[in-house]
Write a structure and sequence with these properties.
Helices cover about 45% and strands about 15% of the residues. It has 16 helices and nine strands. It has an eight-stranded parallel β-barrel with strand order 1-2-4-5-6-7-8-9, surrounded by six helices. Helix 9 links the parallel strand 6 and strand 7. The two termini are about 30 Å apart. The N terminus is likely disordered.
């Protein structure tokens, strides 16, 4: 599903680091399991999103299986700049995965932040924040083995309770050549507690590479406030964009034009019904009544959803 190699090479954009050099806060769509796939990335790019990540892909499966590559990674020539996020625990496996996507993407990101039990049990995700030498080794290996100097290598982390350990991890990654670091301002144990924006600011002040702030950003105003609080170079948003894919363009809630765009894009991409429907449920959360939700959320076919949108909203 990656498409024609020559076409992909022709459509390559510039170094994603150019976004950070622009002096503007970089607006980023987070890696979201099931959700940040090609169709949704296409949508948010229409509404001022600067940079998109794929959902997290397990590098070992991706390298081993053509079936995994076809199902996990789909892109096209409008899908740039694009970062492919991998879960990995071995430097060479990460390098092999990076080499496969290099002609089609603008960089890779190593997931060091996923707190889910299965990921931690496998040695992936947030447990890597306790293995700074391994993270450093993985970043350095990719840097040494990918010939394209514009291909970025980033990491996404959570914070330690002892922030000195997080700063140490970040400095080791910087020494290995990491392009930027995204910091989710919570520890592994924290789920819905307030985000530690002060910790992100401390990390930013300790580094000379770009830092991206992540956590509880739901509106463009939130993004601006977090930028002020942390001095971060970019903001990464997950649930806020699910609820309102036009958020970065300054809309307070999902405009009907955005819903229409999603319908058009999803149909064009052949998006599976469940994914198509779930996105609409998120987008319409704030603009539908309880009664409407009861009806809309149990619709079970694309045609039923299209009829509902047409009858109720003229979409």
């Amino acid at each position: 599903m990656i498409g024609n190699v020559t076409e992909a090479k022709e459509c390559r954009r510039n170094d994603p680091m150019d976004l950070f050099r622009s002096g503007q806060v970089v607006k980023i769509c987070a890696p979201m399991v099931r959700y940040s796939k090609l169709a949704f990335r296409t949508l948010v790019r229409r509404y001022s999103c600067d940079l998109c990540y794929t959902p997290m892909i397990v590098a070992a499966d991706f390298v081993r299986s053509a079936k995994a590559r076809d199902s996990e990674f789909t892109t096209n020539k409008g899908d740039h700049p694009l970062i492919v996020q991998f879960a990995a625990k071995e430097a060479q496996v990460l390098c092999d995965a990076a080499r496969i996507v290099c002609p089609f993407a603008d960089g890779i990101d190593l997931n060091c932040g996923c707190p889910q039990r299965w990921a931690m049990a496998e040695g992936y995700g947030a447990c890597l924040i306790n293995k700074p030498e391994l993270v450093k080794d993985m970043v350095r290996h990719v840097r040494n083995q990918i010939n394209n100097p514009k291909f970025s290598v980033s990491i996404k982390i959570r914070i330690h309770e002892d922030l000195k350990r997080t700063v140490d991890l970040c400095q080791k990654a910087e020494a290995a050549g990491v392009s930027w670091i995204t910091v989710h301002g919570r520890s592994i144990e924290e789920r819905h507690q307030p985000v530690h924006y002060d910790a992100i600011k401390t990390i930013k002040q300790s580094m000379s590479i770009p830092i991206v702030a992540n956590g509880d950003i739901k509106t463009l105003k939130d993004a601006e406030n977090v930028h002020q609080l942390t001095e971060a170079d970019g903001v990464m948003v997950a649930r806020g964009l699910l609820a309102n894919p036009a958020m970065f363009a300054g809309y307070e809630e999902t405009p009907f034009k955005c819903i229409q765009d999603w319908v058009d894009i999803a149909l064009e991409h052949g998006t599976p019904f469940t994914c198509f429907h779930h996105h609409l449920m998120y987008m319409m959360e704030r603009i539908t009544s309880k009664q409407e939700k009861k009806v809309f959320n149990v619709l079970s076919s694309t045609s039923a959803v299209l009829d509902y949108l047409n009858d109720h909203y003229g979409v």
